[in-house]
Structure formats: structure tokens, C-alpha cells
Design brief:
Layout (H helix, E strand, L loop, with lengths): L1 H28 L1 H31 L3 E2 L3 H29 L4 H34 L2 E2 L19 H15 L5 E5 L6 H12 L5 E8 L4 H16 L5 E8 L19 E7 L2 H6 L4 E4 L5 H12 L1 H5 L2 H13 L4 H11 L4 H13 L7 H15 L4 H10 L7 E3 H11 L8 H17 L4 E3 L3 E3 L2 H12 L9 E3 L12 H4 L4 E3 L20 E3 L21 E3 L20 E3 L20 E3 L7 E2 L11 E4 L7 E2 L3 H4 L5 E5 L22 E7 L17 E7 L4 H9 L4 H7 L6 E9 L4 H9 L2 E8 L20 E5 L8 E2 L2 H14 L12 E5 L8 E2 L12 E5 L6 E3 L1 H4 L7 E5 L6 E3 L11 E2 L5 E5 L6 E3 L5 E2 L5 E5 L37 E4 L8 H17 L8 E2 L2 H4 L12 E5 L15 H4 L7 E5 L4 E4 L2
Parallel strand pairs: 3-6, 3-7, 4-5, 5-6, 11-12, 12-13, 13-14, 14-15, 15-16, 16-18, 17-19, 18-20, 20-21, 21-22, 22-23, 23-24, 24-25, 25-27, 26-28, 27-29, 29-31, 30-32, 31-34, 32-35, 33-36, 34-37, 37-38, 39-40, 40-41
Antiparallel strand pairs: 1-2, 8-10, 9-10, 41-42
Helix pairs in contact: 1-4, 2-3, 2-4, 3-4, 5-6, 9-11, 9-12, 11-13, 12-14, 14-18, 15-17, 16-17
GO biological process, one term: defense response
Keywords: ATP-binding, Coiled coil, Leucine-rich repeat, Nucleotide-binding, Plant defense
Organism: Lactuca saligna
């Protein structure tokens, strides 16, 4: 028995010894494998760290707070990778050394490092596992205010019908028990206007507001796309979001379009508008609010406001007719606006004729609502003096409902239809379209949109379509408009087709056209852009030989049908973004063609046949990535060519594109060129492009082309609105991912450009003198945009030559007009890490008198923006935005050698945004008075806030200094409204500090007699006691943390009883322990 036990124990010992020895031997045998595994896992962790860092950078860019644990994980990752790198360095050195020594030392070293590699690999694997949660989400989105532009609401401000509807809607939105609110009423009554005004009034209550126009055809995918981010904020972050669905014609199932609803998502508020009451009822709205037409007296007040009360008061006969015209408008604000604008400044006989037409003209084949709109809006159309404006108006109805229309496209269609008499050029057509649009917007027939764009109200569009489908009137037009109706096929009826002059099938999903010849003998316009066509039957165009405008853009057509050669009267042809179209030789038969657009197609060459189209004025071959060359001689044959748009990644030189032939064209005026950034260093001499009236050169890194276009062409805000207007900047230069200095031809382009956009330019230190030399006369810029140019230290840097030459120039001419930046209207500076100041020179050389907007973000070395003497010249500044500048301490610095004794006044400044500026101490550090007579909006928001309680000024140096207790003199309340958001007040550490901040804030508001909307503060009960007996200028106040229990009537509580005595304060909202709104009865 003892022997068996001994044998068992001995066996176990042998097994353990053997397994241990095997493990130790495996360390040596798998040495290389274990080290390689460690290297691979280290690389995986490094890649994961980089991905998470990208998300962190994006979150910081958006001002979002990082989730707990994210930064800790990043720090640990850095530590682990440092240890691994140190280990691998030691291992490599030991490996190199030990192989030169005895084998025993070699084996011992291999064993040690192999075992260490396994241990470190396990740490890396665990850290990768911990990091998986951070790869998808690293931050908490920070709510950003959404600003909704209001359309013509000022005329309705004191109209009771409008005010009551607005108040009822806002009350419903704020009611916590209500999720969905409906607005219904007839077309033109102002539902959309009310929805936008509601959004503007309640935006501070929501983390986000999403406004979606639904229209007759519900685009489910588009709605889902628009609400996707908001839905995440609702469901994941539990934030409050308002979703507005405008112009719904049929009930929408909210879950189908991705909108959270139900008791579990009460943080999602939904506001919808419709012409029909049953739409809201069908969607089970909690409150369905009717928007009524205006009362007779209200309609008369509105009409007088539009026409001009003084003119009517001085002419009793005209006033009598005007009242009768107003009565015919049916109380619809849209119609009143249209009729008033059409008749103001007209003679009395035109008024009388208009009244007669209003009474007599009533089409019978339309419903009552549209009949009135038709009658009154047709009057506005009939009274247009310009035939061109009438034609443009009707053209706008060819597009789908609620589409934003580009005036450039309207000009191209207008050229094709020859609606412009004595047309000089394509540029002349664009100007005349803008003039027509101005006429139409002033007549309320079109709505202006940013960037040379317009929109047609759906009621107005209905009227335009009735005009073109009616047999009444002098119009010889008949339109067939099926745009935006989700059609999958089109089969015209032969018995009605012959009379059509224009057909629009745009924005559908038509995949196939009739495979036989169609008979449209009067057709001059055929529009089928934005469909899914891959092929057009060869005989399709055989029966429409009068067509002058053909738009087949945004399809997937691979080749052109043979019948296109029969369209010999074609003037405008758009084939853009048919990305499979590779051959256009057939177009050489179209001798009358003046506008040809093949942008975004797959063509590899501009063929010789295009040289036969000698009447061509505009050729657009931009974004053709496969275009390698233009057939030699083609450009020189196009003797009437005015504008050329061309861009490619396949071309290696300007000569491949035939651009050297441009100098032979007498009418040529505009070139838009897109090439790789390397080309700007080998750009040829002798092109004379600097002599062109218009150019836009983009030298872009071909690997990043899509990213850069997204970055620079899809900005939001005031500056971007200016950029999108082609009439604003005529000569633009965009260079990215390149090195300074540039070649001489590029320098010449800089000298004549009015807009520059530079991204990631190495070794560029400044704008002047690096790019423009030192002569003031050479500087013509209106727009300056710099991004990620990390060597830029300032915009203007003084050199010895600079000072001497400019002192002499200023001494000789004695004028303030000849200063640097005197023509600049917009400046955007982004991520210039080394930018320390804007002007490193004597400020006598600088003038910003025409600057309208400036945006600065991510400039971490910047300490101040404007010296006082420069700030005193900002007479046209409208918007100021500064974001994420971590070292900025003051926006306007104190006095300098050029300072005058005058105060600082910004007469046109309406918007100030200061966000994420942790070191900002004050807006202005000097003693002069700062005035903002036009200010509408201030936003001051940062992640952290520190405030020096001993400071004699509030952070925004627009307020009276501490200790100044002079009596506040109340002035007349202006009609403008100031929205003042001073969120830093919420960071006060105690009641006394908080009271002082609020005290001086409200003193400023009262001193300026401003109408403060949406003021929000804490400790309000203690704070406002300081204002007992002070005249209140507020009519609406939102307060937090007031009472532990809700008062039965806060108007009986001090200090609100005194505040309400003069009836200035009408509405009080108390939040914190309660959610209640009180109105002063």
C-alpha cells in the first residue's frame, strides 16, 4: 500500500515537473511568435486609440462633454503602449546582443522576453475589450440652439387673431400632458408662419427643433433622415425635442417615419400643420387648433400697413376702394399681402379696374378656397409690368412643391426659352432673373431664400398652375406638371397631349419611358431631372422637334438616343450627373445649342464634334473625374463661348484641357477650374486668367476631394449665405494641401481675387505680405477663409520695408480709403493653432469698415481679436462669432496709438455668439462706452466659467460698472426685441455673487429700455428683490428655483407684485420645483 502511494505521488511530481518544464520550453520555442502577437495587439490598440481620438476631437468640435471613463481609458492606453514600445526596444537590443553570446545566455534571454510578451499581450487584450464601448460613443451631445427664420410675421404682431392663435399653440406645447399639437386652416391663412414663430418662441425649452415640410407626397426616407439625430437624442439621451411637420395633406404614421411617440417618449413634442382638420384628428393629436382668417377690421389694419396708411388717409376715394379690395381678400394674410403689394403706388384707375376684376373673375371648376386665392393672386400676376417676371413666375411652378429654386437654373431655362429681349450674355440673363425675382418677392409671389434662391408658396404655386391650365386670359401656355408625385411610369394621353407647351416630370422615380414616338408639336420644354432613367428609347424625341429646353440631369442614362439629333431647335441641354454617360458625340448635330451641361458624367474626352456647336455660350464639364483631355482645337472653335466649367482628376496639365485656347475667344468671361493641388506649383505662364471677369479655381488634394467639398460647400450661417450667392464673389481661389510659396501665375491670381479659401498650406505665415506683397493697391479681397494653416501667426505682419513704403503712401495720399482690409466683408479663421493676433502692425494701415461677418474658431493661441482703434471702425459688422479659442481673454483690447476719444458703436451688429472660451474675462477691457443699437441676439456659453468677483465690470462689457447706482432712466421701448442669453449666470457659486450679476444685467436691459424675451436665471426670488420699485421693461420672464411649493398666486408675492403694477410684466414662468405659467389678468 505504501509503495502504491509512493508511486502515485512520484507520478504526480513527474507530471508537474514535466508540464512545468514543457511550459518553460514553450516560452523559448515560441519566442518569435509571442513577440509578433504582442506587436499585432499593440497595433490594434493603437488603431483603436486613434479611432476613439477622432471621435473625441469631433465631440470637442461640437462642444460636447465626454462620457465618464473615456479620457481615463485613453490615458491608460497611452501608458500601456509606452510600456510595450519600451519593452520592444529592450527586446530588440537584447536579441541583437544575445545572439552574439553563448547559447545558454541566448536561451535565458529568449525565455525572459517571450514570457514578458505573453503577459503584456494579456494586458493589451483586456484594454481593447474595455475600449469597445467607447468606439461607438464617447460624448454627450450638447444642445445647440436652433434659430428659425420668421417669414413676414412683423406685420401680424399686433393682430389679435394671430396673437391668440400663437398663445394657444405655445401653451399647448408647454403643457407636459400634451405630446402632439395640430394647427389647421385654409391655404394662405398663415399656418407655416405661425409654426415658425412658435419654434422661435419656445426654442430655449428644447435641446433641438426639427422643421420638416411634408407636402402632398410624403417622402418617408427624407423624413427619416431629418429626424434620425433628433430621435437618438429623444430615446437615448432623454432630451426634449420639438418636431414640426409642416403642410401635411394625409395622416402620417409617426412610427413609420421614425418619430418617437407615446407615453414613453413624452420628451418628444410634435407640432403639425394641415389645411384639413381631419388630418390632425386622424393622427390623434392631443390639441387641434384652428387658425382663423382675419376679422374685417384686422384685415383692414394689415392692408393699410402694406399699402401705406398715409396715402389712403389723404385720399377718401382711394380709401373707399381699398376697403372694398380688402373685403374681397377673404381675411387671408397671404392674399392681403399679395393684393396690397400689387396695388400700392398705383393710380386710382388701376385700383378701380382691379376691384372690378376681383368681383368678376371667379373660375367655376375649382373649390372655394383655391378660387379666392386664384382670383386675388392672379391679380398680382396680371399687374406685373415685366413680361420677364411673368415668365419666371410661371417657370417656378414647374418644380415640385416647396422646392428651393436656384436663380441660375431659372436663368438657364430662360435663355433656352428666349424670354429675354436683347440678351447680351449668360451673365446678363442671371442679372435679369435676379431683377425679376426681386419684383416677384416684393409682390409676395415668391419667398426669398439665402444664396440667390427662392421658393414658391404652395398656394401661389396652385394659382400659377391654374393660370397655365386655364383657357382664360391671354396666356398661350399649357403646362403638364407632375413633379414630385412619386410616379413610377408615364403614359401620356394622346387626345390631350398636342396642346402642351411645357411638361415637367421632375423628382419622380420613373424608370422607363414610352418606347414609341410621342407627338407634342407645341412642346418647348421637357424636364425629367431627378428620376431613375437608365435608357431613353431611340425614337422618343421624334415628335417634339420644337423643344428648346431639355433637362435630363440626375438620372443614370448610359447613352443618348438617336432621336436627340432631331432636336435642332434645342438651346439649353442639361445632362449633369448621369454618372454612367460616357459619350456625347451626337450633340455635335445641335447647332443652336447655347448651354450644354455634362457635369458629373463619365466622359473621358470633350470630342471634336462639340466644336461644331459654334453658338455655345456655356459649357459645364465640372466634376468629370475621368475627363483626361479636350480635343485640340475644340475650345478655339467655340467663338461665342462665355463660360467654361471644367474639372478633373485625370488631367495632368492645363494644356490637356485646351485652356490655352481661351485667349482667342472674344466673348469669354468666366472660368471655373478644378484640378489637383500639385498643379498650383506648375501652373503655366501666359494663361492671362487674371484678366477674366469671373473665375473660381480649386486646387484640391484629389484623395480628399469629397471631404473638402463637404467641409467648404455646406457651411451654415451668414457667411455661407454670402458664399452661395454667385453675384457676391466673382473671382475666387481655393487651394488646399499645398506648400508656400506658390508659382508666379498663382500669385497673379491672388492679386485679383476677391475671395480666397486656403486649407492646410504649409509655411504660410500671413496674408500680407506673404501673398499680397506690401502695396495697399494690390489688395482687393472681400472674403478671407483660412483653415488648418498651422504656420499662420497673423493676417498682416509689419516688416521694415512694409512700414517704410506704407508710411510714404499714406503720407502722400492722406486718405482712409487706401488701407488694408477696407474692402473685406467676411472673415472665417478656423483651427489656426499658431494665430496670436490678427494684425501685427501699426493699426493706421488697417480698416474693417466694410466687414459684415467674422467667425473665429479653434485658434488656441489667440489672446484678443480687435484693437480698440480697429473696433471703432466696424460700422457694418452684423455678426460676430468666436468659438473654441482656449486662450482668448478679451474680444476688444484697450486703447492703442490710433485710438480716438470716441466711444465704440456697432450700429448694425445684430448677433454675437461667444462659445467655449474658458479664459474669456470681458468683451472689452477699456473704459469707453460700447453701444449696440441693433442688437437682437447674444449667446454666451462655455464649458467652464470663472468670474473674478473683484472685477469692476461684467464679462460682457456692455453693462454699467459695479457700484454705479445712478437712477435708471426709462426710455421709449423700441419695436425691436433683444434675446439675451447669459448662461454664465448659472455658474455663480453663491447667492450674493449671483445677485450682483443678475442685478447689472437687468440694469442694462432696463437702462436701454429693451424688450427682454426668455430671461432665465436661478436664485431669482432673492435676486429680484433688488428691483423693488424699479420700472420694469420686461413683458415675459422665466425663473427657476423660486419656491419650495407652488404659490397660489405669485402676483401677490414680493417682489412680483411691485413688478406687475405697471402691467409691463404680463407673463411669468416658474420652473424648478413646479412647472407653471401665470398670465397677468
Amino acid at each position: 500500500m505504501a509503495e502504491e502511494v509512493a508511486n502515485t505521488v512520484a507520478g504526480k511530481i513527474v507530471d508537474l515537473l514535466f508540464s512545468g518544464a514543457k511550459r518553460e520550453i514553450d516560452y523559448i520555442r515560441n519566442y518569435t511568435k509571442n513577440v509578433d502577437i504582442l506587436k499585432n495587439e499593440a497595433q490594434k490598440l493603437r488603431d483603436m486609440r486613434d479611432r476613439i481620438q477622432q471621435r473625441i476631437n469631433a465631440a470637442k468640435e461640437n462642444g460636447e462633454a465626454l462620457l465618464a471613463g473615456v479620457q481615463n481609458w485613453m490615458d491608460k492606453a497611452e501608458i500601456e503602449m509606452s510600456k510595450v514600445e519600451e519593452f520592444l526596444e529592450q527586446e530588440a537590443h537584447a536579441k541583437k546582443t544575445c545572439f552574439n553570446l553563448r547559447p545558454c545566455v541566448n536561451l535565458s534571454t529568449l525565455h525572459h522576453y517571450s514570457k514578458m510578451a505573453i503577459n503584456k499581450t494579456s494586458f493589451l487584450l483586456q484594454h481593447q475589450e474595455d475600449g469597445k464601448t467607447h468606439e461607438s460613443c464617447v460624448s454627450i451631445p450638447t444642445p445647440t440652439p436652433r434659430f428659425v427664420d420668421l417669414y413676414q410675421t412683423k406685420n401680424l404682431d399686433d393682430i389679435d387673431t394671430h396673437k391668440l392663435a400663437l398663445r394657444e399653440i405655445i401653451q399647448a406645447i408647454k403643457d407636459e400632458s400634451i405630446q402632439m399639437v395640430g394647427i389647421y386652416g385654409s391655404g394662405g391663412v398663415g399656418k407655416t408662419t405661425l409654426a415658425k414663430e412658435v419654434a422661435a418662441e419656445v426654442k430655449n425649452l428644447f435641446a433641438d427643433i426639427v422643421f420638416i415640410t411634408v407636402s402632398q407626397t410624403v417622402d418617408v426616407k427624407e423624413i427619416q433622415k431629418n429626424v434620425e439625430k433628433a430621435a437618438k437624442r429623444i430615446m437615448i439621451n432623454k432630451e426634449k425635442v420639438l418636431i414640426i411637420l409642416d403642410d401635411i395633406w394625409e395622416p402620417v404614421v409617426l412610427s413609420d417615419v421614425g418619430i418617437p411617440c407615446g407615453n414613453e417618449h413624452m420628451n418628444c413634442k410634435i407640432l403639425l400643420t394641415s389645411r384639413r382638420m381631419d388630418v390632425g384628428e386622424g393622427m390623434n393629436v392631443d390639441r387641434n387648433i384652428c387658425v382663423n382668417t382675419l376679422k374685417k377690421e384686422e384685415a383692414w389694419v394689415l392692408f393699410k400697413r402694406i399699402v401705406g396708411d398715409g396715402k389712403l388717409a389723404n385720399d377718401s376715394s382711394l380709401e373707399k376702394i381699398a376697403k372694398e379690395v380688402t373685403e374681397e381678400c377673404g381675411g387671408l394674410p397671404l392674399i392681403i399681402q399679395a393684393a396690397g403689394n400689387a396695388l400700392k403706388n398705383k393710380k386710382i384707375d388701376i385700383w378701380e379696374a382691379a376691384l372690378n376684376r376681383l368681383r368678376k373673375h371667379a373660375p367655376l371648376e375649382i373649390d372655394q378656397e383655391i378660387r379666392k386665392a386664384f382670383t386675388h393672386l392672379k391679380l398680382s400676376y396680371d399687374l406685373l409690368d415685366s413680361k420677364e417676371a411673368k415668365s419666371i413666375f410661371l417657370l417656378c411652378s414647374l418644380f415640385k412643391e416647396d422646392e428651393i429654386l436656384d436663380t441660375l437654373r431659372l436663368a438657364e431655362y430662360g435663355v433656352g426659352l428666349q424670354i429675354f429681349d436683347n440678351l447680351d450674355s449668360i451673365n446678363d440673363a442671371e442679372k435679369r432673373v435676379r431683377m425679376a425675382v426681386d419684383t416677384l418677392t416684393s409682390s409676395s409671389l415668391l419667398l426669398p431664400e439665402p444664396g440667390d434662391k427662392v421658393k414658391m408658396h404652395d398656394v401661389v404655386r396652385d394659382v400659377a398652375l391654374l393660370i397655365t391650365s386655364s383657357s382664360e386670359g391671354e396666356e398661350k401656355e399649357k403646362f403638364l406638371v407632375e413633379a414630385g408625385k412619386c410616379m413610377t411610369e408615364w403614359q401620356p394621353r394622346n387626345r390631350t397631349s398636342e396642346s402642351y407647351t411645357k411638361i415637367s416630370l421632375m423628382s419622380n422615380i420613373i424608370r422607363k419611358l414610352p418606347d414609341h414616338e410621342l407627338h407634342f408639336p407645341l412642346l418647348d420644354t421637357f424636364l425629367i431631372r431627378y428620376n431613375g432613367l437608365s435608357m431613353i428609347p431611340d425614337d422618343f424625341f421624334g415628335g417634339m422637334k420644337e423643344v428648346k429646353v431639355l433637362d435630363m440631369s440626375f438620372n443614370n442614362i448610359t447613352s443618348l438616343p438617336q432621336s436627340v439629333k432631331l432636336l435642332t431647335k434645342l438651346i439649353t441641354l442639361d445632362l449633369s450627373w448621369n454618372e454612367s454617360l460616357y459619350e456625347i458625340s451626337l450633340l455635335g448635330e445641335l447647332k443652336d445649342l447655347e448651354i450644354l451641361k455634362v457635369r458629373g458624367t463619365r466622359i473621358k474626352v470633350i470630342p471634336g464634334e462639340i466644336g461644331q456647336v459654334t453658338n455655345l455660350r456655356l459649357l459645364d464639364a465640372g466634376d468629370c473625374r475621368y475627363l483626361s483631355h479636350v480635343t485640340p482645337g475644340v475650345i478655339s472653335k467655340l467663338t461665342w463661348l462665355e463660360e467654361l466649367y471644367i474639372g478633373t482628376l485625370a488631367t495632368h496639365s492645363v494644356s490637356d484641357l485646351g485652356l490655352m485656347e481661351i485667349s482667342n475667344l472674344k466673348s469669354f468671361r468666366a472660368l471655373h477650374l478644378w484640378m489637383d493641388s500639385d498643379e498650383c506649383h506648375i501652373f503655366p505662364e501666359g494663361t492671362y486668367f487674371e484678366m477674366l471677369q469671373e473665375f473660381y479655381f480649386q486646387f484640391i488634394n484629389q484623395r480628399l476631394i469629397d471631404f473638402e467639398r463637404l467641409l467648404f460647400e455646406n457651411h451654415d450661417g451668414y457667411i455661407s449665405d454670402l458664399e452661395r450667392s454667385r453675384s457676391y464673389l466673382k473671382r475666387r481661389l481655393h487651394i488646399s494641401h499645398s506648400n508656400f510659396p506658390f508659382s508666379m501665375p498663382i500669385k497673379k491670381l491672388f492679386r485679383v481675387s476677391d475671395g480666397i479659401l486656403l486649407m492646410k498650406i504649409k509655411d504660410l505665415d500671413n496674408i500680407i505680405p506673404d501673398l499680397y506683397g506690401e502695396s495697399i493697391n494690390e489688395f482687393k479681397l472681400k472674403s478671407i477663409q483660412l483653415k488648418c494653416c498651422h504656420n499662420v501667426s497673423c493676417l498682416v505682419k509689419a516688416t521694415q520695408t512694409f512700414v517704410a513704403s506704407n508710411d510714404l503712401m499714406l503720407g502722400q495720399r492722406k486718405t482712409t480709403k487706401e488701407k488694408y482690409f477696407s474692402q473685406v466683408e467676411q472673415i472665417r479663421l478656423t483651427d489656426l493653432k499658431n494665430l496670436k493676433l490678427l494684425f501685427d502692425c501699426s493699426f493706421q494701415f488697417i480698416s474693417l469698415r466694410n466687414l459684415q461677418a467674422i467667425e473665429i474658431s479653434g485658434c488656441d493661441s489667440l489672446l484678443t481679436v480687435f484693437p480698440l482703434s480697429v473696433a471703432q471702425g466696424l460700422s457694418n459688422l452684423r455678426r460676430l462669432g468666436i468659438y473654441r479659442c482656449n486662450s482668448l481673454m478679451v474680444v476688444i483690447s484697450g486703447g492703442d496709438e490710433q485710438t480716438t476719444d470716441n466711444d465704440i458703436e456697432f450700429p448694425r451688429l445684430t448677433h454675437i455668439e461667444l462659445r467655449f472660451l474658458p479664459q474669456l474675462k470681458s468683451f472689452y477691457s477699456g473704459d469707453s462706452t460700447v453701444k449696440y443699437p441693433s442688437l437682437e441676439f447674444i449667446q454666451w456659453f462655455k464649458n467652464t466659467y470663472s468670474y473674478d468677483s473683484s472685477s469692476s465690470h461684467l464679462p460682457l462689457q456692455v453693462l454699467p460698472p459695479q457700484g454705479e447706482d445712478d437712477e435708471i432712466v426709462s426710455g421709449t421701448k423700441p419695436t425691436r426685441r433683444l434675446l439675451f442669453i447669459l448662461r454664465c449666470i448659472g455658474f455663480a457659486t453663491n447667492v450674493d455673487e449671483h445677485k450682483r450679476k443678475v442685478h447689472y444685467t437687468l440694469k442694462f436691459v432696463l437702462h436701454e429700455a429693451l424688450d427682454l424675451v426668455g430671461f432665465n436665471t436661478t436664485y431669482a426670488r432673492d435676486t429680484l428683490e433688488d428691483f423693488d420699485g424699479v420700472r420694469w421693461a420686461l413683458n415675459e420672464l422665466e425663473l427657476e428655483d423660486l419656491f419650495s411649493t407652488a404659490p397660489e398666486n405669485p402676483w401677490n408675492e414680493a417682489p412680483y407684485a411691485n413688478a406687475a403694477k405697471n402691467n409691463a410684466l404680463e407673463r411669468l414662468s416658474l420652473d424648478g420645483f413646479l412647472s407653471q405659467v401665470y398670465y397677468l389678468s
